[in-house]
Every structure is written in structure tokens, then in C-alpha cells.
């Protein structure tokens, strides 16, 4: 668990980069053999691209890093539970394990709304560990959206 907290703290640092850019503060990284293959944060607003979630960017970069679309034996660390799109990308890239911080009651597909990552009908499943540094991850998101709401009241 200590290792998971260490890598999640790096994902939180990535999320903070997104927040500085006025992006939803979500960070992700992909680790294999205790080595970071890729780090990413949300860029959806900056790029005006609905696919620019932290997980998708990290998967793309990790594939480039190893020269393969198969990320077998890799672990994805992400500050917020993956959405349906990201869960699909995780399955398709063969990521072995997903560790996430905060649950997503509106879009979480790693156990909250549904669990696409462990769906028996798919040919690949990922192990899931939830709630790693969940309070830190959740507070960052809560604070971000609170600031947005308050700025709209002015």
C-alpha cells in the first residue's frame, strides 16, 4: 500500500498542474516494474478535445515509450475513478491494475456506477484498488468546483 500511496502522490502533483491551467484537476501515471512510463493530466479544455483525459494521454505516452499498444503488467494510477471512455482504453491496452483515489458518483466505471474493468464478458480484466489517498484527491476536486461556482456568483 505504501507504494500505491507514493505513486498516487505523483498523480496528485500531475492533477495540480491541470488545476493551474483551469482544467479539472485529474492526474494519471502509468508504472511498470516500479518505473514511471508516462505522466499526464487533463487537457480537455486547453486542447478543446473530449478525448484529452489524463488516463488517455498517459496510455498514449506509455505506448510510445515502450513501442507497443500492450501495457501488460503495467499499473495505472489516477486521482479520479475512470469514466467509461477511459475504462475502455484501459481494457484495450491490457493494463493489469488500476489504482484510483476518489470515486466518481456521476461517471465512475471502476465500481461506482458499474465496473467495466472487471466485466467478465470482456477478454481482459484489470485489478482495481480504490480509495488510495481518496481524501486528498476528492478535496482537490471539491475545492476546484467550489471555486468555479463561487466565481459565477460574482
UniProtKB/TrEMBL annotation:
Annotated GO MF terms: tRNA-specific adenosine-34 deaminase activity
Active site: 55
Presence of the UniProt keyword Hydrolase in the record: yes
Catalytically driven reaction(s): adenosine(34) in tRNA + H2O + H(+) = inosine(34) in tRNA + NH4(+)
Domain CMP/dCMP-type deaminase: 2-120
Superkingdom of the source species: Bacteria
Pfam families given in the database record: MafB19-deam
Positions that bind Zn(2+): 53, 83, 86
EC number assigned by the record: 3.5.4.33
Keywords: Hydrolase, Metal-binding, tRNA processing, Zinc
Record note on cofactor: Binds 1 zinc ion per subunit.
Cofactor: Zn(2+)
Membership in a protein family: Belongs to the cytidine and deoxycytidylate deaminase family. ADAT2 subfamily.
Function: Catalyzes the deamination of adenosine to inosine at the wobble position 34 of tRNA(Arg2).
PANTHER family: CYTOSINE DEAMINASE FAMILY MEMBER (PTHR11079), TRNA-SPECIFIC ADENOSINE DEAMINASE (PTHR11079:SF202)
Protein name listed in UniProt: tRNA-specific adenosine deaminase
Provenance organism: Bacillus carboniphilus
Gene behind this protein: tadA
Amino acid at each position: 500500500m505504501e507504494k500505491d500511496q507514493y505513486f498516487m502522490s505523483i498523480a496528485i502533483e500531475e492533477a495540480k498542474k491541470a488545476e493551474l491551467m483551469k482544467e479539472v484537476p485529474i492526474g494519471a501515471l502509468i508504472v511498470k516494474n516500479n518505473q514511471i512510463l508516462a505522466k499526464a493530466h487533463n487537457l480537455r479544455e486547453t486542447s478543446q478535445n473530449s478525448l484529452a483525459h489524463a488516463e488517455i494521454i498517459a496510455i498514449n505516452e506509455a505506448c510510445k515509450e515502450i513501442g507497443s499498444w500492450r501495457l501488460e503488467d503495467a499499473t495505472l494510477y489516477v486521482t479520479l475513478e475512470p469514466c467509461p471512455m477511459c475504462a475502455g482504453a484501459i481494457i484495450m491496452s491490457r493494463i493489469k491494475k488500476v489504482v484510483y483515489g476518489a470515486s466518481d458518483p456521476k461517471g465512475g466505471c471502476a465500481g461506482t456506477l458499474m465496473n467495466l474493468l472487471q466485466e467478465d464478458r470482456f477478454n481482459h480484466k484489470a485489478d482495481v484498488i480504490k480509495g488510495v489517498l481518496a481524501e486528498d484527491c476528492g478535496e482537490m476536486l471539491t475545492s476546484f468546483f467550489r471555486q468555479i461556482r463561487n466565481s459565477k456568483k460574482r
